[in-house]
Amino acid sequence: MKQYLPVFEKPGFRGRELLLLLACLAGVCQELGAQRPMPIPAGESAKAHFDVAQAAQRRQDYSTAEREYREVIRLAPGFAEAHMNLGLVYQIANKLPEAMGEFRRALKIKPSLIGANFFLGIDYCKMGQGANALPYLRATVREDPKRPDTWLWLATAEELSGHARDEVTTLRRALTVHPQNVDLLYLLGRSYERLGKAEVAELEKIAPASSWSEQLLGESYATSSNWNFAVIRFQNALAIPPARPGLHVELGETLLRARRLESAAREFDEELNLDPNSVRALVRRGETKLLQGDAEGCLRDWARAIDIDESQAEQVLSLRERGFGDSASEQLPEAWLDRIEKLAPWFRDRPGAAAHFALAFLAEQAGNSSQVGAELASIKPADSPRSALCSERGLRDDLTAERFSRVSSCVSVLKSSLPDALRIPAAHALFEAGDYAGSLQLLSGLPSPEAHSPPAYYWRARSDEKLATVAYLQLFQADAQSYRVHQLLGDLEAAKGDDAKAIEEYRAAIAQRPSLPNLHYSLGHLLWKNLQTAEARSEFEAELALNPTHAGALHDLGNTYLSEHQPEKALQYLNRALAIDAADPELHRDIGTGYSELHDYRRAEAEFRIAMAADRDGSLHYKLGRVYQALGEKEKAATEFALSAQTNRESHQMLERQTERLKEIQQLPVDSPAPNQ
Q1: Averaged over 649-672, what is the pLDDT?
Q2: Of 103, 422, 612, 618, which has the maximum CB count within 10 A?
Q3: What's the confidence (pLDDT) of residue 52?
Q4: Which residues have CB under 8 Å from 667's CB, separation 6+?
Q5: 522: which residues sit within 8 A by CB, 6+ positions away?
């Protein structure tokens, strides 16, 4: 089953919009107008009808309101607010063409009218016409930036228009006005995630099965704590020449987190043979030595790392902040922590910055943030001479020596004159120093063909991923108990495969905000995955009541009926999903299955043909073979069955090779804490 990423709004979503409409109808969008006074139409008769219309709105008598607003317009055709209110009455009755016509008339009279701009923009979004919505929603934001909803709808229009980077810009601007808004923070994280996935997809197109692609897959598995598959992907990347710096250290970090200390140490050694100035490898090798009981060796590595770039060394161990995934410091098992904590007095008796660094690491593991700060403050910065202050030569020297934390200030000075050949190395440096936005900015200025090279796609994907993590951390800090945090935790647990925890988090989010788009779908998707069909259907139907065009809910709901051999009912939902997401091969596969069960074999053939590119195990070739068999086309059937057998055999061989590699990885010794010195 396909997982649909949560989004804020999609065309057709009405639950949240209806609440906004009702609020605006009561006072002609006074909330959107920043408490501006209500205009009064000229003429006593028009004013009287307007008052009656307003009263009818307040008691939700929309037929009377419509009649009275029409009379106001007859008497005062230039009164823009009457056109807008009549449009809102039409909108509440779901008469979108009539509503949009009145909004346009209102804006022709008064272009800055907030309510008309806002709801005309919403209507275009509902129709999937994001580009048409943009000018109206931009006008709304200009007039009333204080309401988060105006920014959220503008971001929706930009997403629908395919302007993903503009969507991020909008959300970031909105957060300067509403820095604690949990919806904006969650959606910013999701926007960065989508951008990162788009970069990964482009990388797959230009360099499939490359070391860069394998590296990204390894990082994805590592983030989900799927150590064994992460190891396989990093090993795959290392097997593709030429050897690239950074791969051994990432493999080593994965093995370290999986508690394979000896194997991890070998990878850090390999990295340092390839790249002697790798601060990341030095810090991680020092950590490994500490866990192995080699405190002296730990201090040597950490002293060298601090001498190269103290700030970067702190970044590697996340000593100054906590976050999600690989941005957070990995907490050691209790037995290991007890063992290394006993080394604290030994470190206190040692001079030098590395001892303070070690004490900061121990304090961080113990959760003592104030001591972490005190120990880091005791480290005196090393004097690393520059060959030239903020010059191209000085920048090259810093990049060669991997003094990455010093690159940022020089990049800003040399930005306009920075040679193209230095942009990707400088972007890498900024990334390692934690300046993900700066890294992305450098990469956005790459000329072609460098902009479409594997390393450019890789670093853009990584920067987007990190910026998503930053947004999620800010969300957690804004309100750790909010429905958006529960939703995020549900997303994270679902990605890790812990369905029980994800279901618990989604239910907690729904308890706080049952009308939030995509929550019911996310919960239903996991319930359906775990074959809790009746409960899943209930959630899909709840989602569709909010958003009738939610492709994921329609697809999964259709499949629940397909699994019970009710193809007629299944196809009702699957074809509705197809009208929204015609490019989804899994949808074509399932529709083909439905037609096949109805013995409508020509339609089934057409759908299976469209879906064939997604056949990984031969099952689609087999289904198509059965269709040709039923049609009496024996040669075509034989061809498809042969292709099915071949694809299935190749799939099994690949699975067997993967199983063997997993066994090898699982047989690596899990290290126990070493005795104290």
Answers
A1: 74
A2: 103
A3: 92
A4: none
A5: 6, 487, 490, 491, 494, 502, 506
Measured distance CA(148)–CA(186) in Å, rounded: 13
Shortest CA distance to 375 belongs to which of 365, 364, 360?
360
Report the C-alpha gap between 493 and 500 in whole angstroms.
Answer: 8
The listed range with the strongest mean pLDDT (7-21, 66-80, 372-386) is: 66-80
Taking the C-alpha atoms of residue 203 and residue 457, their distance in angstroms, rounded to an integer, is 6
Let me know: does 75 contact 53? Beta carbons within 8 Å: no
CA distance 572 to 314: 56
Neighbours of 301 (CB within 10 A): 24
- Rounded CA-CA distance 205/453 in Å is 11
In degrees, rounded to 5, the angle at the alpha carbon of residue 203 between the alpha carbons of residues 237 and 490 is: 85
DSSP state of 482: S
Rounded distance between C-alpha atoms, residue 87 and residue 46, angstroms: 18
Token look-up 């900015």 returns: 441
Q: How far is 622 from 643, CA to CA, in rounded Å?
A: 8
Q: Amino acid letter at 461?
A: A
Mean pLDDT over residues 650-654, rounded?
A: 80
Structure confidence at residue 116 (pLDDT): 93
DSSP category for residue 368: -
